[in-house]
Amino acid sequence: MLGIISHVNKTGFGRRKALSARAWSMGLLLALPGVMISSTAYAVLSGSTGVITGSAPTATGTVSILMPDGTTPLTSTLPAVLGRTTTPDQFTLAPLTTGLVFADADGDTPANPSLTLSPAVTWVWTKSNGTPLTPAQRAQPFSTYLVDGDIAEVSAMVPVTITSSTGMPLTLGTPTLFNTGVFQVKVSIPVLPTLQVNGHQFALSSGFPKTGFVGRHSNCG
């Protein structure tokens, strides 16, 4: 009787062991697709990152303002002396290449030209008390609204487009503003010489009168 029970127990134990092994095998088979899917997911590459860009070109330096002669730059040391007929609109900007230097952090090659003046340069002219000159005044000689020895101030905001011929981006997309700084000019309006005849004054530029005029006279003895 004990032998039969022992045989049954052994047989039952064997079945349980076989069932456990079979269940483990089934679990392994069921898990394999997940492992394969997971491995496949890790192997998928990300999409394209697009074009890699660097730094836009820049420039360093300043822009100068030239006197009406077109060659003499204004300086901050002494006020420039102006003549009687000089107008604010006769002042111009120096070539950009004389004061600005192209720069690019990526070492890209400058275009030709690499520095170009954009429209809408802002000129600011003021009297010594800070009153801005009107557009009409800027077209007129200083002597029409200032007196001898008066000081006027001028500055300009200069938009510059900076371009390279290599790299990306080739330009910043918007002009870079450069401030010229503030300079002073001194108005010199010398008194014109006159002729005084019989108590009357005549400017040399007016010409001597060819017709008679009322004046003092003395009796001759």
From TrEMBL:
The chain crosses the membrane at residues 21-45. Keywords: Membrane, Transmembrane, Transmembrane helix. The keyword Transmembrane applies. The keyword Transmembrane helix applies. This is Invasin. It comes from Budvicia aquatica. The lineage of its organism: Bacteria, Pseudomonadati, Pseudomonadota, Gammaproteobacteria, Enterobacterales.
